[in-house]
Specification:
alpha/beta, Rossmann fold, 12 helices
């Protein structure tokens, strides 16, 4: 009995693991930190391979598996896939391979439709997210309730990862993408990538302040709290939690961008993550 209690206490004191293709998942990590100030956080940015939006599904699955395996070496109690593209391609596989809670993220189409007055919404996301089977199923569930426009945002993530969130090149790219939306009645925009909240101010400036912008970071944080509560894994509220940040491409520019996003001086450590074969890799069988 005592051993079981000690085991539960040990699990509660382990960190939450979070990963993304780059720095975008920090927008989710910020919401988790805000909601769960006593939890410890380990964040991995796979910046050496960012963005995932142009990668194959097999590559995304392989990286997601490798990074989650790396997080297990830190003895995390749960993993948050803070990347829409990694979620739609990898979440089912990860949940089969690991026993701890794994929480993903998906574009907030349902809340967008509820907020939209014109019942015309646009989903801003990477090409890989928009063409995935999981996203297609999500869209199909709501296609009778509103016009849903799919807007692939080419090069947004690449430019954000360069570190200048107000560069003329970035703003020009955002303008060109948003001006291509054919329906003038779109009044609600879904941020379908965790990088995009970092440029929400530019989107609002271009489209006007009357539009609605849906960001699902807070919803993910609430789901993390719910899952940890259900599994009795919430850390006792005694001390403030700590954060550790790792990247597969830790540079001075990455550290500066991390500090800007996180809101306080912090450091990022380099982490090499080796290839982990996905289940059935090399065969025709896929989960």
């Amino acid at each position: 009995m005592a051993a079981a209690i000690n085991s539960t206490l040990s699990l509660k004191n382990q960190a939450i693991g979070i990963f993304d293709s780059g720095v975008g998942g920090l927008t989710v990590a910020r919401e988790i930190r805000k909601l769960l100030p006593h939890e410890d956080i380990i964040y991995i940015a796979d910046s050496a391979n960012a963005p995932y939006g142009h990668k194959t599904s097999d590559f995304i699955q392989q990286r997601s598996l490798s990074i989650t395996q790396a997080l297990t070496s830190f003895n995390v109690k749960a993993v948050v896939v803070a990347c829409n593209t990694a979620t739609v391609h990898s979440i089912a596989m990860l949940r089969q391979e690991f026993q701890f809670p794994i929480i993903g993220i998906e574009p907030g189409i349902k809340p967008a439709i509820l907020k939209s007055q014109t019942k015309s919404v646009a989903v801003l996301a990477t090409a890989q997210t928009l063409k995935s089977h999981s996203f297609h199923q999500l869209k199909e569930r709501f296609k009778q309730e509103a016009q849903i426009h799919l807007i692939p945002c080419l090069n947004w993530v690449e430019i954000i990862e360069e570190g200048d969130l107000s560069s003329p090149r970035l703003i020009k790219q955002i303008e060109e993408t948003l001006q291509s939306i054919p329906d003038k009645y779109v009044d609600t925009y879904v941020l379908g990538c965790t990088h995009y909240p970092l440029i929400k101010m530019h989107i609002r400036q271009i489209l006007g302040h009357s539009i609605q912008i849906i960001d699902t970071g807070e919803a993910v944080a609430l789901e993390v709290k719910r899952r940890l509560q259900n599994d009795a894994l919430l850390k006792d509220e005694i001390t403030d939690g700590w954060e550790r940040f790792y990247s597969t491409r830790a540079s001075a520019a990455d550290c500066q961008l991390l500090t800007e996003i996180w809101g306080k001086e912090t450091k990022i450590e380099s982490l090499s993550i080796q290839h982990q074969p996905t289940p059935f890799e090399g065969s025709d069988e896929r989960r």
